[in-house]
Amino acid sequence: MKLFYDLGLLIYHFGVWVASFWNDKAAKFIGGRKGVIEYISERIDANSKYVWVHAASLGEFEQGRPVIEQIKKIKPEYKIILTFFSPSGYEVRKNYDGADIVCYLPIDTSWGAKRFLDTVNPACAIFIKYEFWMNYISGLKKRNIPTYIVSAIFREEQAFFKWYGGWYRKVLHCFNHLFVQNQKSLDLLASVGVTNASLTGDTRFDRVADIAAKSKELPIVSSFKQGFKVIVAGSSWPKDEDIICAYFNEHPGVKMILAPHEIHQGHLDSIVSKLKRPYAFYTKTNEEEAAQADCLIIDCFGLLSSIYKYGEVAYIGGGFGVGIHNTLEAAVYGMPILFGPNYGRFQEAVDMVNRGAAFPVHNADEYNPLMDKLLMENSESLKNASEAAAAYVNENRGATTKIIQEIFG
User: Fold this and answer.
1) 8 Å CB contact between 90 and 27
2) 0.90 surpassed by pTM
């Protein structure tokens, strides 16, 4: 099985290499791994102890960031090496100053994993949520290097819990401890004999609380709001925009901030074509002009987590595709949240729906009356949903402290 695993990874790597000739993301995936061991060797301090933290992509990094920063705060004798699997994580956070070394993770072949572990020789390893790389994790086990996974979430459909998953299940027994998000994950692990696990919750609650506490003041957005009730649509896709723009066009008493998931010119032009009220682009306006607009289109990245505080209701995009984007960034401000129907894989979304803080919609016929109800004058529905969202975030903070105490005592 190990031979087939290595062979499968090589085939995958070859496929990405072929795609790299025309696909920019694939090119970064391949190019970023060239010479990565030499890159680490030049920067590693042989006299220091390293904690290796691995995140698949940007979302997992944000999940692991509170853990990294807490380690740096209470254990300054450790250095951090942060690795990414995906370019969408590495390219955004390659200059993150909370880590001493940031790089791509070499492909998980037997020899690739050995070279990496020989070079880094970490004091311990922390994986964020996913990424069960057999050669890396079994290699850590053989070297008696403490290994952990944090904010993990498991589902019945994963190979670990199938009749054919015996070989892959071995990876679960290599962890010193598994920190999981929910009781279902804990039960699934117990069903296959993994008992060195605990329910600690999701470190993203700590992360969004920290972001909210440090949120930026944005004069253009403040001027745009002008006392109006504002819908903030975050990480939207065209299917989302069909619904939210149609409602916005027919409700002149409400303003909208729209931060699309993609900001290439074609997508921005598509958004503009759906609007029938005055709009402005964030990077091309000023406070005076923004005050005259009804829709503010955010044509840059990095502001959304601060923008949510200017709204009354949030719509989170992606729910008509593979799944919704980050809902907690909005919930931390005590905002009701709406999103499309594909949210079942996201524990926090399921929880907030059950608590009356979030509302899935399948179409405009569901979105419109719900938005009317939330945005009406002195809406009791808005008040109740807002309080439910804020309470949910506050009640689930503290995972980072529990994890750090378990790992470092």
Assistant:
1) no
2) no
